[in-house]
Each structure stands twice: as structure tokens, then as C-alpha cells.
Amino acid sequence: MPRAAKNLAIFNCNAQMMLEGRDYNGAKIFLYRVGNLNLTKDTDDKVTNEQVFLSNILTLEWSLLDPKTQIAGVTVLADLEGFSLSTHASLLSPYYTRKSAEVIQDTFPLRFKGIHIVNQPGYFDAVYAVVKPFLKPKVKQRVYLHGKNFDELHKYLPPSVLPTEYGGQLPTADNKNWREQLFKDLPLILGETDGCEEETADSELKTNNLNLSTT
After folding, report:
1. How far apart are CA 16 and CA 119, in angstroms?
2. Which of 181, 119, 122 is nearest to 146 (CA)?
3. What is the Cα–Cα distance from 166 to 179, expressed in whole angstroms?
4. Taking the alpha carbons of 95, 34, 7, 210 in that order, is the dihedral positive or negative?
5. Closest CA to 148 of 173, 167, 134
6. Can you give the pLDDT of all 215 residues of the chain as single tens digits?
7. 46 neighbors 94 (Cβ within 8 angstroms)
8. Are 192 and 204 in contact (CB under 8 A)?
9. What is the β-pairing status of strands 16-22 and 28-33?
10. For residues 47 and 164, what is the distance between their CA atoms, to the nearest angstrom?
11. How far is Cα 102 from Cα 104, in angstroms, rounded to an integer?
């Protein structure tokens, strides 16, 4: 399975991060803010579908460094604020929908305990209808559409571990600290134990422009 994104600069989009806290059952919380991803505008922050997919894999692989997460799993909090078909529809292509479903259901050695979707647009039911055929019944039962009903979200994710924009008690989500930890742990994720490799990785990571193997 591909294990890393081509360009770590995608994490500067502040679209992906693991929250510090856990849900009521001990699962780590993966915050995924699709609206922060620029897939169409020809600007410096433009990213590709493949970069998005592989950086999500890298995020999940980072979570596996924690033995507690290996047991308790991960809960996904997907924020669709800013999602638009004109910008993000390519993420729903059959190819990437199938690949993402395979990761969640079959190929990735991690327990996905729930997928909580918030701030989805009014037409999201039609979007979800495209994704549903790729999901097994067990996964479908773990998908929750909350909209802006954060009281309902709090039945699954405690306010004490959530940023204020989700009705939580923490400051607005910023992946800076987590991103720095991810970059620091990259040699562990990729199995680079040789000192020379670690030194090279460290120097390149400082530029946020490291091209990684995707094989």
C-alpha cells in the first residue's frame, strides 16, 4: 500500500490532523476538513487527489505508532464546511472512492470506530448516494450525519476534546503542533532507522518539500 504523500506541504492546508484527545471509547480522533483543500485553483496551495489520499494514509500510519490507538482505533470527524462540487468532486471519483473504502474496510490494519460528518451541504444526501455502494453494511452503520447539530455529535465525541467550532471546549483547531510531531516521527513511520537517512529526512522536512516514495 502507498505509505506517504508526494509532498508534505499538503499538511500546511490545515485540512488533516489528529486531535490530542480521544472519544468516549478511547479511539483517536482524525479531523479531516475537506473544505481546506484546493484541488482546482492554480495557486501555490493546489493539491492533487493522489496527494490527498496518500497524506490521509500517512496520517493514519502515524496514529499506529501509539499502542493504545492500535487497540482502540480511530474515529473520523469529517468537516465539510466549504465543500463544493466544483472544487472537490474529483475526490468522489469511482477510483478514489473505491480506494478509500478499501482502506477503511479491508486493507489498513486499524479499527475505524465511526465516521462523523458535520457541516455538510444540503445536497450531501445525493453525494453520499455515490459513496454508499462502496461501503459494507457494518461501515454504513458507523456513518453519522450531524450537520450543525453538535449536541448530537457530543453524544459520541466529548466536548472536552473538541475545538470550539464543533461546540467544544478547546481553541480553534490548528494542526501546527501535530504536523511538527508527524514530521519528527516520519522516519519511524517509513522504517528509516539508519542515522544518515534520519538526518537527511530531518533536513528535507525543514523545507516542507520532501518528495517521498509512493510504492
Report:
1. 16
2. 119
3. 21
4. negative
5. 167
6. 344 444 688 899 999 999 999 999 999 999 999 989 988 777 677 888 888 999 999 999 999 999 999 999 999 999 999 888 777 887 878 888 898 999 989 889 999 999 999 999 998 999 899 899 999 999 999 999 999 999 999 999 999 999 999 999 999 999 999 999 999 999 998 885 333 333 433 433 443 333 343 33
7. no
8. no
9. antiparallel
10. 27
11. 6
CA angle in degrees (0–180, nearest 5) for 105-3-139: 15
The DSSP secondary structure of 36-71, one letter per residue, reads G-BSSS-STTB--HHHHHHHHHHHHHHHTTSHHHHH
Separation between Cα atoms, residue 85 and residue 183, nearest integer Å: 31
Instruction: Count the Cβ atoms, other than its own, within 10 Å of residue 12.
Output: 16
Residues composing the chain = 215
In contact, 212 and 4? CB cutoff 8 Å: yes
Amino acid, single-letter form, for residue 27: A
Residue type (1 letter), 80: L
Give the Cα separation of 143 and 196 in Å (integer).
44
Whole-model pTM: value is 0.84
Which three-class secondary structure string do you get for 121-133?
CCCHHHHHHHHHH
3-state SS track over 75-103: EEEEECCCCCHHHHHHHHCHHHHHHHHHH
3-state secondary structure of 178: helix
Residue 73 pairs in a beta bridge with none
